[in-house]
Amino acid sequence: MSNADVNTRTLDHIVHLSPAGKLEETAQLFRGFGFTVLKGGVHIDGLTENNLVTFQDGTYVELIAFTHPVSYYPPGSPERLARESHPWASKHPGWIDYAFLGNGLLSPPSSRISTIINGRGESEGSGAHYTDEEPGGRTRPDGVALKWLITAPDIKKHPRRGVLPFFAEIKLNEASFLRKVSEDPEAIKHANGALGVSYLSVLVHESSRKLQEGYITSVSGSKAVDSTEYETTWALDTPKKDPGAAEPKYHVAVPSRPGDDDHLERFGEGILVVGFKQIGKADPDLKEVTTPYARIAWTSG
After folding, report:
1. Distance in angstroms (rounded) separating the CA atoms of residues 174 and 7
2. For residue 48, which of 87, 100, 76 has the smallest C-alpha distance?
3. Burial class (CB within 10 angstroms; exposed 0-12, middle 13-18, buried 19+) of 123
4. Residue 137 burial by Cβ neighbours in a 10 Å radius (0-12, 13-18, 19+)
5. Any residues with CB less than 8 A from the CB of 244 and at least 6 apart, and which?
6. Would strands 166-170 and 94-101 be described as parallel, antiparallel, or unpaired?
7. pLDDT confidence of 182, banded at 50, 70, 90?
8. Is the CATH number 2.60.40.4320 carried by domain 194-300?
9. Contact 55/10 with Cβ under 8 angstroms?
10. Gap between the Cα atoms of 223 and 203, Å rounded
11. Which residue has the higher pLDDT, 71 or 141?
12. Domain ranges across the chain
């Protein structure tokens, strides 16, 4: 398999940020929407903690929050500096980031995600550029440590996190907690009938649209499957294939409905709404709900 053929368009998870120390409140909101929410754990740096909403296609939503506000840490302390420099430190609560599945199986430097995408960005002239892989991890409630590799957009060229995906790959020598969870019928069973992610829509300024389209073409290694006046669409894969299910879609969108311009002004470019595939709706009239910070939409699965 050549680097050009490596799959870099598999959706792994989407990140929802809560205010510091308010993770459980958001978990209760998602439970109220009919999702099954699992306990996650504290990340290895101690700055953030998470809960999880997992789906049968292997994708998941990560509900995350900083464990403490910035003021908790003494001024000038290493912990304070780490908290202030965290990639999500300046993010408003809501949908803040999303990850595609990395390629931890491909260990040679020439086959790493960063090398592959940077090569595409150069040859295609899009300018897409990612930094070298870095380790990350967290400790589960049962004390087991999970470790992974993260490949992120280069902040020198793409300064705003959450507009382009980062890549995540659990290391092979660690138990794959999330993949095991996706086989647990109770963990992936949701009262609202959710099967997985139907789409995610990234809102950008009209002036940024062509640039973002070029970026995501290089990042995903695929061409758009549709384009309209207000959005361009790519097809994504999922970690676990379901021949009977529609593939999730990725939209690069520009303002088209009331409130979109205000959203851009307040939050900047990034995820506007996440749609979920749903069957057996308890409320057939349910089309969209919101947390205090983010939009959730429903489509027929």
Report:
1. 22
2. 87
3. exposed
4. middle
5. none
6. parallel
7. low
8. yes
9. no
10. 19
11. 71
12. 3-181, 194-300
**């992610």: which residue's tokens?**
197
* pLDDT given at position 282: 45
DSSP E strands in the chain: the ranges are: 11-18, 38-43, 48-54, 60-66, 94-101, 134-139, 145-151, 166-170, 194-203, 226-227, 231-235, 249-253, 270-278, 288-290, 295-300
Find the distance separating the first CA and the last CA of the chain, reported in whole Å.
33
Q: What beta strand segments (E) does 79-165 contain?
A: 94-101, 134-139, 145-151
Q: Locate tokens 């700055």: which residue?
A: 47
Q: Against a cut of 0.85, is the pTM above it? A: yes
Residue that has been written with the tokens 């953030």 in this structure = 48
CATH value of 3-181 in 3.30.160.20, 3.30.565.10, 3.10.180.10, 2.40.50.140: 3.10.180.10
Q: Given the structure tokens 């994504």, which residue do they identify?
A: 236
